Amino acid sequence: MIVGTAREIKTEEYRVALTPEGVTDIVRAGHQVLVETGAGDGSHYLDDAYRAAGAEIVATPAEVYARAQLVCRVKEPEAVEFGFLREGLVLFTYLHLAAEPAATRAIIDSQCVAIAYETVERDDGFLPLLAPMSEVAGRMAVEVGAQHLKRPGPGRGVLLGGLPGVAPAHVVIIGSGNVGRNACRVAVGLGARVTVVSNAPDQLRELDERYAGRIETLLSSPQAIANVVRGADLLIGAVLVQGRRAPVVVTRKMVRSMGPGAVIVDVAVDQGGCVETTRETDHAAPIYVEEGVVHYAVANMPGAVPQTSSRALAGLTLPYVLRIADKGLDAALRSDRTLARGVNAYRGHVTHAGVAESLGMPYSPLESMLGAP
């Protein structure tokens, strides 16, 4: 099989889907790899390293998409890339289609197969390809929140950990999955007062036991969120409903109640955001102020630490890439339920119920189209 990757074009996105180490393994397995020139530059993987690993360096993304049967990316296709999508192509990347109706329509119209990293799901519900980027984003959320609480800038000028005689900042984390747990870890380490709000009592119990009284935990309800958000210094939105648009759990009124100079980091922005006042930003212009509150809503936060992120992501996606390349797409999907759950679109049909529901599109079960082995 011909496997390819192209340079990411989202603003300030420096990650790459295949590392030279991964290329070596794919080539050793008997497959061909195409890499667009400069695709790895942002993560300090230069063309010469890919050549040494056995890849063919090509000049344009159009050539990658035209020749490769399986294209691995990091982010969803941008509008200028929609024309590259075609029947017979397998696209393997983060898609977040519930918040991307235009990309979804382009994928459906192209008749390609689109597999989303974020919906590849094990039988126990774990999302192995979403987890590493959630961990990065959770840890970064506290860092960027602490930075934007400082002056100069519109933040209120609060040190997250406080000082002897001065109370620490209050950090409210809504969600207790991978993002929430990692945000909690960093916030506690910096000495903040931390409250985690979640509708998952088992996860709250685990956090309570781990931090032994150093954090507060709260079962989620609209009134509970309203109460705890009021006056908070930093709010981190870490809500995830797998494959679906994130529910809005923080209203504009709640945002206003935080007070001037508070900061919101809505990590759920790639699924539409869980705060009513959220609108997507990017690394070039990451913040805006609404209701007096600083909002940070960068949808590709891990792109700021591309070498760490690329190594983690490429290492975890590689076994699935090899499975598709070795077996062929349909055989790989029939033999691997974890991978099959990642298929969001299959030859003109939406095959993920959450995406279909969020966008009001017809849903077609993948099993009905794969047929018998």
Beta content comes to 15-25%
Distance between the termini: 20 Å
CATH-defined superfamily of the largest domain? NAD(P)-binding Rossmann-like Domain
Q: What helical percentage do the residues reach? A: 25-40%
Total number of beta strands: 15
CATH-scheme architecture of the largest domain: 3-Layer(aba) Sandwich
CATH topology tier name of the largest domain:
Rossmann fold
Weakly predicted, low-confidence segments: none
Characterize the structure shown.
This protein is of the alpha/beta class. The protein folds into two domains: 2-119 and 305-370, Rossmann fold (3-Layer(aba) Sandwich), CATH 3.40.50; 131-299, Rossmann fold, CATH 3.40.50. The chain has 14 helices and 15 strands. It has an eight-stranded mixed beta sheet, with helices on both faces. Helix 5 (131-149) crosses helix 6 (178-189) and helix 10 (306-327) crosses helix 11. The longest helix has 22 residues, at 306-327. The chain is globular. The chain starts with a strand and ends with a helix.
